[in-house]
Amino acid sequence: MKQYLSLIQEVELFNSISINDAIAYLADGSFKIKAYGKNAIVHFAGDICSKLEIILLGSVAIERIDEEGNLMTIAEFISGDLLGGNLMFSKNPHYPMTVTAKQQTNILEITESRLFKLFLENHKFLRSYLEYTADHTVILGERIKHYVFTTIRKSIISYLEYERKKQNSNIIKLSMSKKALAERLGVQRTSLSRELAKMRDDSLIKFDAASIELLPAYFLTQNASAK
């Protein structure tokens, strides 16, 4: 119990909730802690969102299956993040994608009735809640739009441009494995390797396990697309 209470106190949303109130809510069941092992399914696509969930420890991934049957990671949520923040008040409160625990994860569930009481009785909590859901709805929407409508090559180029400016070099040193890079871009490793090979065949890049070099044709292509 003490471990969970300390984790709850670390969540910014709960700054306006006293420790005694948190204890009372855990006791009456309106707050409930659930534990998920690594790779456990938290929600399947289509599950009804009937409660607010807050990640206390660990992380989860929002995932979808693409047209080829590959599993793609759309976004990740970590400690302090909310699940179902505004989905539960939708006319169609169903999770559109699968939610999976990426490691051992503890999630705090808050019932809808308790959430409404907090809104009515604690205006600081309501304000924090509205600010969080508004900000993160925009962020998640942009991520989903990016992964659904952006080609693999555009995703790779976006990453390369970011790292080129960050490293101030046309030879980009990779700080992660190809598998980790694929997960970051939301594609399968085989799809990433295939597209990198195509970009190499197009004389845009050269690469090995540790780096990717941007060739002159890469910059000509970038300049042409910018016009």
- How many domains? The number is 2
Span from first to last CA? 60 Å
Give the number of helices.
8
Largest sheet: spatial strand order: 1-8-3-6
Give the mean pLDDT.
86
Shape: elongated
Please identify the top-level CATH class of the largest domain.
Mainly Beta
Low-confidence stretches: none
CATH-assigned homologous superfamily of the largest domain? Jelly Rolls
What fraction of the residues are assigned to beta strands by DSSP?
15-25%
Structural class by helix and strand composition = alpha+beta
Q: Supply the CATH architecture of the largest domain.
A: Sandwich
What is the helix fraction of residues, given as a range? Answer: 40-55%
Total E-strand runs:
11
**CATH level-3 fold name of the largest domain:** Jelly Rolls
How is this structure best described in words?
The structure is a single chain. The radius of gyration is 21 Å and the shape is elongated. The chain has helices spanning 2-10, 19-28, 112-121, 123-149, 152-167, 178-185, 189-201, 216-226; strands spanning 31-36, 41-43, 51-57, 59-65, 71-78, 82-83, 98-101, 105-111, 171-173, 205-207, 211-214. The mean pLDDT is 86. With 227 residues, the protein is an alpha+beta fold. The chain folds into two domains: 2-149, Jelly Rolls, CATH 2.60.120.10; 152-226, Arc Repressor Mutant, subunit A, CATH 1.10.10.10. The longest helix is centred in the middle third of the chain and has 27 residues, at 123-149. The chain is built from eight helices and eleven strands. Strands 1-8-3-6 form a four-stranded antiparallel β-sheet. Strands 2-7-4-5 form a four-stranded antiparallel β-sheet.
